[in-house]
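Here is a complete protein record:
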Amino acid sequence: MPSSRSGGPLPYLDHLAADSARFRAVLATAPADARVPSCPDWSADDLLWHLAEVQWFWGEIAERGLTDPAAVEAMNDARDERPTDRSGLLAFFDRSSERLHRQLTDLAPTTPLWMWADDKTAGYIARRQAHEALVHRLDAELTVGDRTPLDPRLAADGVDEALRIMRGHEPDEDLSHAPVAGPVTIATVDAMHTWTVTPVRITGSWNGREIDLQRFLVADGPDPSSVAEISGTAADLDCWLWNRPPEGSIARDGDPTAQAAVDAVLSDSID
């Protein structure tokens, strides 16, 4: 993972605090009904509420030490209603953000906690929430037209997380996967890291429902069998994988069918 290859582990909680603070500062003076260009169904207040309730949710799990899905569902059903004005939204965000950071700071990274991903620890929640704050900080900045750079090491780690966890697939005995195109190299031009992704179609029955999805099989490093390459800065690739506008250009080369298969995986929205 990029976070362990250059300069030691990433300070996820520092990034969570900094990007949450920037998010709040940007939205505090934005018009409540300003549209979010990267999430066009949302207003500025919708965006503020979204990150506030996300941080409330994970802060509640961390504070209660929840590991049981039924307890998490009951907790989620009992959440407070959305505040009706900007001052209420900001106050709720402040409480949620402060608690999330405090609770994760107090917990060992190996602490078991409920998580939808395979890594069910406080450490992964810290990682996930650092990237959540980063992406939505960018959304806030795009809303007001005041974009600032993404931290390159955090962005490189974001590429890894987006490829492996948000858009990746680990083989499962209950599901079948079949390649829909040849492997594609994804390369950062500034973070010295490369991945090879193979777009696959996943079918089968999972948790009582039929699955038909497109995802990536992911491996570290280049592969001589790759039929295409997509490259850019870590920040631009992270934005691209989250369907946010890159600041620079993404370079593409090779088999157009494989590139289109990569784009098809990215067509699924992740907020």
About this structure: Residues 1-6 have pLDDT under 50 and may be disordered. The domain at 8-148 is CATH 1.20.120.450 (Four Helix Bundle (Hemerythrin (Met), subunit A)). Residues 181 and 258 are 5 Å apart (CA to CA).
